[in-house]
């Protein structure tokens, strides 16, 4: 049995889905405070293998017996890509389109509890829904049913393949959300009270869904942690396809890609997306893998859809950490200090008056050294400018912005992913917390962060002034103040980049 931060189950739980009954297990004694049930690896679509590798997600067939949902299902991630500090294990197998459901009210169709659906990150090529951090125990304690979704990754999920549907990973998200609409009552949830959330690529995923007209009926609120949309241009997607086909020595056809082994495809994908030293190109265009503009699910850049009013009826909370990717440069501080900042930033495309304005707006970072400045600039370009542009594009739509500033990590800065264990209130997890959040992460910060998430999920609002009412205003979690504070210009440091 898979360990989801629990001991041996005290009892089993059952729920009946539209395809058949499933058996999960209780964490804690049923009927006692804090007890909830986990249902793991429930398939929402057929295994995407063979002729289905590049197909639309296909509905599952019915099953007759009670199906065990006691262990995490297969993940699309293979091995350990080493791209995140979140413990996200790979699980071998083919049936990767599955959901995990955590609920305090299994089988109670009248409970009508609000629902959180989590989409994991990982750059659209890595990540897993099987993380112990995504265990919904804390949300269950607060009366929220929690679901995590698996989806196709990398070229299989997002690459352009002639004759195959575009954005297969996006279609997997939608299929997972359709499963929630059809089945969540059986797990005590209310399909009319669904909030979608995700971090990093998962944050980009929920923003992509917010901007897609074809997904609007599937959720009612959004929280994006460190999210930035990919919006890959068609020509960029075709170029990457040609590179991968060339690396494999095949024609870029669906039949040829279906005939290649998964291992060979992953090897070619890695070679084709290798950044080398060209970080400036990555900041401008990304890897070329991710949700792509397709004229259908994503008819135009997501920010244009948001500006046109798509998703304007849904509350959105979004934010980023102060130093998302600064940790990538932590070991180069001594070397970088001898290189003029003007040269370092110039190589990244920041020059002249804009560079001077940016440095003036970030004097506190300049005082920490060249590596800190370069890391902050990369973080700002990739994530924080996206927060401001997204919030601005929403106009009068209900939008709240925050910034995560807790610097208690071993990197001594608010790095990428540091907000996740606080958001899930899982600081007691036996896996990975000290490596990211330090040896003594403050429970009070988890209470505030997780509590804010619960307010959005339950009440479709946040507890600080909305950006749509006071542009520039954001809540600061984990800053110098002992309690989360409100900053009237929370993203002042990135304005020279806009």
TrEMBL record:
Residues 17-426 form the Carboxylesterase type B domain. SUPFAM superfamilies: alpha/beta-Hydrolases. Keywords: Hydrolase. GO terms for molecular function: hydrolase activity. Its EC number is 3.1.1.-. The keyword Transferase does not apply. InterPro entries: AB_hydrolase_fold, CarbesteraseB, Carboxylesterase_B_AS, Type-B_Carboxylest/Lipase. PANTHER family: CARBOXYLESTERASE (PTHR11559). Belongs to the type-B carboxylesterase/lipase family. This is Carboxylic ester hydrolase. The lineage of its organism: Bacteria, Bacillati, Actinomycetota, Actinomycetes, Micrococcales.
